[in-house]
Each structure stands twice: as structure tokens, then as C-alpha cells.
Amino acid sequence: MATSQYGDLAGRVLAGRYRLLAPIGTGASGRVYMAEDVQLRRRVAVKVLHAALADDAGFLRRFRAEAQVAASLHHPNIMTVYDWGEDGVPFMVLELLEGGSLRALLDQGSRLSVAQAAHVGRDVARALDYAHRRGIVHRDIKPANLLFDEHGVVRIADFGLARALAEASWTEPMGAMFGTARYASPEQALGAPLDARSDLYSLALVLVESVSGRIPFAGDTTIGTLTARTKQPIYADPALGPLRAVIEQAGRLERDERYPDASTMATALDDALESLPPPLPMPLAGARDADDRDPTKLADQPTQAITAIPYDDAEPLPALFDQDAVERSRAESGATAVVAGAGAAAGARSGTSGRRHGPTMASTRRLVPLVVAVVLALALFASVFAFAGLGAAKPHSVPLLVGYTSSDASAALLRAGFDVKVQLVNADDAVGIVIDQSVAPGRLISGKGPITITVSKGPGLITVPNLATLTAAAAKVRLATAGLLLGTTTSAFSSTVPLGQVSGQSAAPGAHLAPDTPVNITVSTGHAPVPVPNLIGKSSSDAIVALKALGFKYKRGADVFDNSVPKGFVAKSDQAPGSNQPFGATIVYHLSKGPDLVKVPDVRGENVAVACSNIRAVGLQCHANSGNVVTGVVVSETPHQNAMVLRGSTVQVTIG
Predict the structure, then answer these.
(1) How many alpha carbons lie under 13 Å from residue 312 in its C-beta half-sphere?
(2) Which of 140, 289, 294, 324 does the annotation list as catalytic?
(3) pLDDT in tens, 429-465
(4) Does residue 140 carry a catalytic annotation?
(5) Which entry of 108, 376, 511, 539 is 20 to 30 Å from 446 by CA?
């Protein structure tokens, strides 16, 4: 096992909070530990990335941005990122999923039924749709990144990590490159820009493997795999039933011929499920099963399981299976085969095998002295040619310069006899580090060159994105993705920007700032309150026009009597004129029915007591003039009988 590159950190507490209990998996980029969050007292998974990445400033910058993006994703089929940071090594804190990965499930010999694969694929496609609609492409969909909880619900892991690693100056082991190639889309193989449809192609490959145990186009070498991937689309086995059409649609060579988005693919998988029997429970592998070998393992490699133990068991875990060892060995042996020469290639073309056909190998051995003699003769001729002065100056081997400081690289070139030319460019790498050289290392060059070395002068200025219409949380993610930080957030009324969206930013869109510069934002609290206009005395149509001009809604209430406002005009509103009301609030107004008039009753000839009672009954006041107010009889009244007067007016009665 070649896991020495990862020191066992079990027992260490990262960031003063996460106690690493035991490793449960390892891969090309890092090791995963079962850990305890000592503050919240819960079990978590901590992915500790390779220690060499801690010295890569460009990677750390990208890692911070991508970790923020990953932590912002909240979907039932995306692994939750609780926290992230750097404590000597970069790490991410994740939810602990007890069901293990799809890679581990396949490595233990299990396979999914067509219905189970369609169910898993549908959930993964829904999660991808959620991420894609937020502008996030995974770039590394594979069985190792599909994990299950204890109920068999799938989660996508490592959002953002693939992109951060791809842009790191640190190089992953060769086996990791091989593993990525197994699930790479044709555009990934060609080095073209990626979009959401690349994830759909990789998902199609995963679905084929989950049912059949085999990957389409998986060759013995990285180059072979990538080349085959760009030649033809995916053809699915008819045994996949209704899943076959979905896989072949997502596995087209041309992106425009695939599903336009993950939502459409999820719908297609849902339709396939309708014609399939209900899927049985998933055959979960468990969180402490064989290491997640997917980045580098072919399907025919054996599995070494890790036995589950209690968290506090004192016995050590069995040694981890290094997911890179086998494929790294394969890649190196493949490279050796290429270097071995034309004889081996000729044997391969003739379809013979030295182990099975002794005479052929014997003939090859008899040719070796002759070949060696020819090579020595040619070398002797070249030497004589050089010493005779018939050729150019003595050739020099170009040293490896990438990764060294500019001064060290220049000194190495001068010692080798070359002239040096320095070209400065913006890059995520540290200032002064060589990131490219004009002549490949190991090449023999006659003369002094010059050799051009490309040197990083640090990250260039970053273009400030437009944050308008984003929420504060989305603005933070957009800034992090661009390489900037979110500064202070203030609130202010806005007549044009809806509530909760960014209405202003301290650096204008398109401006250029240094990496990690904070950008302050202003978030709209909606429209400022609006004073209610005075509607009294206005017609109904004029009142409506006045309210709409200020953004108010309106409603006509019950009409009311009003002694001072003519009938049909606004007599009052429920909201007082001049009071501040929320923009868009509904203002209730009431039209006047005119004065409240009543008819004076005719009480002549009635006893004064009866007369006054009748007057008060219609809403008027009664006042008796001089006379016998007990037994007297009304002889006249003022105002006179049948006159229309305002309710509450006083009627004078004269007693005879």
C-alpha cells in the first residue's frame, strides 16, 4: 500500500473543534476521518486534503471559494458541508453518512437493479439540477462521490473540490488522473470548457456501471480511455429496459444532442420508473467499508474491507486500502511498455505472446545483439561527427524548471549553458514561481537558447461581478466564486429594488480589485413608507388616480352621511391623511351620502309630553315654550311640520 503520503492524524483536533477519531477512507486528494464535533457533540466526517496543498496559495484561494459555494448548497440529495478551514492542512467538515458509497457497494460485488439505478439516477439528476441552476457544475460525478445515508438516500459529495484540485499547482498521483478519465465526458477528454451537460454524461456512465459492473470505453491507459470516449456515443445494453433510452440520450457525443438540463433528465428517469417495478431497498456497503477506490480503481480489482468497530474501541482499524496504488502501478507499467521499444509493439500487432510462443520470443532474443550493435554504431558515428566539428555545438539537456523560484530556475539554466528569458504573467501561484518553460525538460538543445521561463507575478486583478437582484447569501457566493470577499451588509429603502435583494455595492460591476478584497453591499428593505393623500372632497375617480400614482391599492367602503361633503364625493378614508403606510398598502375610502336629513313630525294638538316623545323618536331635539308643560297642548311648532332638517336639530313647540 502506498499511503505513506498521508500521515495518520487520528487523535488530532482541527481548528480546536473537530477531534479526528479514525480514518474511514483515503484517495488521491486526501483522507476521510470519522470525527467528533466537540462543541456540538455530534459525529461528523472530516476530509483532510493532501498536506502539499497547504503550501499552494492558488489552491487555497480556490478551495475557500469552492468550499463556500458547497456550504451554500442545501438539497436532500447533496452532502451537507458543515464547515471548512485550514489548520496546517485544508479540511472540510461533512455530514457523516453511514450507508457508504456506490463505489464501495460495487466493489463488494453488489449490483443495482434497473429500478434501483433509475431511482438513484433520478435523485442525483434532481440534485444536479439544483446546483446547475445556481451556476455550479460538479465536474467529477462518479460512484465514489455518490454516498448513501442509513436509509439508502443518495447524496452527491465533493461539490467544488474537483475544480479547486484541477486548478492547483500540486499534481495528483497518476492514478487519480486515470480514475477521472473513466467518468470524463468527451469535452473533458478534449480539454474543452465544461457545462452542466458534462455532469449528465458522467451520470449516464455511472448508471451503466451500477447495473452491469462495467464502464463503457474504459481502456487500460488514460489515453486509451479518453480517446475512445471521443469516438462514439454510449450504447446501452437492451437489458437496461426503459433506462436504456435515458442513458443513450445523456451519453451523446455532442452536448447539444443530450438532455438540455438535469431537470429534463430527472423527468425522463421518473418516466422510466413508472414502467418499472418498485425498487427494493439498497444493498448498502456501510460507512467503514472498503476505501473509496473509485478515483483510481478498475472494476475488476479486489476489495479490502474495513471492519466496523465502536467509536471508542481501543483496537486500531485495519490498514486502509490506497485507492491510488493499483492504477498508479498500471499507469507506470503502461508507460514502461511504451518505452520498451518497437519490438514489443510489433509483437502486440502480430497478436502473439512471448509467454505462450517460445520460438517467437527466442527469435526476438536473437535479434537483440544485432539491434544493440546497430545502435552502438549509430552512436559512434554521431560521436565522430560531433568531434569532427561537422555538427552544431555540444547539446545540453534542458532542466525541469516548473515549480522552482525564478532565481533558482535562472541559475540552473545558466549552469546548463543556456541564456534565460523571463516572462511575467498573472497566476494563482505564489509570486516568483516558475509555472511554464518554453522547452520541455529533458530535451537536448544545441547552443544557448534562450530558454523562456514563465514566472507568476501573483493573481491578477479580479473583475467585480454584478450583484444586482441577488440576495445577500447569493451575493456572498458570487463574490467567493470570483475570488472576492463579502464585506459589510447594510440595509436601505429602495423604490426600484425588491425586498431582500442587493440594491448597491461598494465596487461597481466591471471594476477590478485584488483577490480577497471585501466588497460591501446594500440590501433593499423594500419601498419606503408612503404618506396617505387627502382624498376628502374628491370624486371617486380622482381618488383612485391619486392612490395609484403613489403605489397604493384601493377599496371603496360603505357610503356615509356627511353634512359638509356633497353626495358622491369622498367623505373620509380609514387611513388618516398624511399617515405613513407601507408601499402598496390598500387604502379604504368612503363616499358621502350627503347631509343626514329627517322630517319634522306634525305634533299639533298633542299633549306636550307625547309631542316631544314623537319628535325625539325621529332623531330631533324637543323644546317646549312657555305654557303648561304637563297638561298643555301643542298649538304650533318650529320648524313647521313636515320640514326637512338635519338630524339632531331642535324643534320648538308652543303650548296653548
Answers:
(1) 0
(2) 140
(3) 778 888 889 887 767 787 887 899 999 888 778 899 9
(4) yes
(5) 376
